[in-house]
């Protein structure tokens, strides 16, 4: 968000602090642009948080492309697909979790079918399981 250094109480200290922030790229200077007479130019800026599960748009106004017509167009097909994708696609991890759960449930169903086919009652495995947990408890202690 743009601000003016003249709004600070101590302008000299503000200049020093802002210059330090600019050199460390914490603050970006607001560029004043001039256009030709009777020409309209628009800038659309927004802030995005990069999160582990995707992007989240924090600030900015919604932009409706259908309201505007450009005299230029993108020719590169790869760039067109990138521009057509949504900014906030962050549900990819949820899809992975669903696939893992489906695989586990299919694997468990297949494992149970194999045991039934062998004719084992599963009593031997159940008796061995408490011994394995007891060994783990001893290692932790």
Automatic annotation (TrEMBL):
Biased composition annotated in UniProt, kind: Acidic residues: 113-126
Coiled coil: none
Residue ranges of the region described as Disordered: 83-141
Listed Basic residues bias regions: 95-106
InterPro entries (alphabetical): Creatinase/aminopeptidase-like, PA2G4/ARX1, WH-like_DNA-bd_sf
UniProt similarity note: Belongs to the peptidase M24 family.
Name this protein carries in UniProt: Uncharacterized protein
């Amino acid at each position: 968000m743009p601000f003016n250094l003249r709004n600070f109480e101590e302008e000299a200290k503000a200049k020093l602090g802002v210059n330090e922030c600019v050199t460390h790229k914490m603050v970006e200077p607001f560029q004043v642009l001039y256009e030709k007479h009777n020409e309209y130019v628009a800038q659309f800026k927004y802030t995005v948080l990069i999160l582990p599960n995707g992007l989240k748009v924090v600030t900015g106004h919604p932009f409706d492309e259908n309201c505007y017509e450009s005299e230029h167009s993108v020719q590169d097909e790869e760039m067109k697909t990138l521009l057509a994708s949504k900014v906030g696609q962050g549900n990819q991890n949820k899809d992975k979790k669903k696939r893992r759960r489906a695989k586990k449930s299919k694997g468990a169903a297949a494992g149970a079918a194999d045991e039934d086919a062998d004719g084992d009652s599963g009593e031997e495995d159940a008796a061995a399981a408490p011994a394995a947990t007891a060994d783990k408890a001893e290692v932790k202690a």
